[in-house]
Amino acid sequence: QVQLVESGGGLVQAGGSLRLSCAASTSHFSVNAMGWYRRPPGKQRELVATITSGESTNYADSVKGRFTISRDNAKNTVYLQMNSLKPEDTAVYYCYVLAALAGLKSYNYWGQGTQVTVSS
């Protein structure tokens, strides 16, 4: 019942920018937080950024000052603006939402992922 669709990935040179979008369908769910994970090739998945329902944000140290997470509540969409991209930012980026039906525990739901490749 929760569906997330990411878009905006692609190939960019170091120093360039991309904006990722994640459109969420969360009918009858309460959304507690949304954010982005990434999985670089051959590495562990890591949390990139989160934004809560109260719009407080957190970022991984590696992206602070370069990435910005935001939400458009009217469109039920979360964004990740990525500036000053580095080759080490190359990864598959996954949108997630922490959501629950009334009376049930919360779960993380994931999008299909979008590839970001940064060339040196």
In summary, what is this structure?
The protein has 120 residues and is mostly beta strands. The protein contains no helices and eleven strands.
Keywords:
four-stranded antiparallel β-sheet
Verbal overview:
With 120 residues, this protein is mainly β. It contains no helices and eleven strands. It has strands spanning 3-7, 10-13, 18-25, 30-39, 46-52, 57-59, 67-72, 77-82, 91-100, 107-110, 114-119. Strands 2, 4, 5, 6, 9, 10 and 11 form a seven-stranded mixed β-sheet that branches. The protein has a four-stranded antiparallel β-sheet with strand order 1-3-8-7, with no helix packed on it. The protein is elongated, with a radius of gyration of 14 Å. It starts with a strand and ends with a strand. The mean pLDDT is 94.
Task: Give the strand content.
Answer: over 45%
Low-confidence spans: none
- Summarize the helix and strand pattern as letters: EEEEEEEEEEE
Q: What percent of residues adopt helix (DSSP H or I)?
A: under 10%
**Biggest sheet character:** 7 strands, mixed
Average pLDDT level: 94
Number of helices, counting only DSSP H or I runs of 4 residues or more: 0
* Counted beta strands: 11
Measured between the Cα atoms of the first and last residue, the distance is 40 Å
| Rg, Å, rounded | 14 Å
Shape: elongated
Structural class: mainly beta
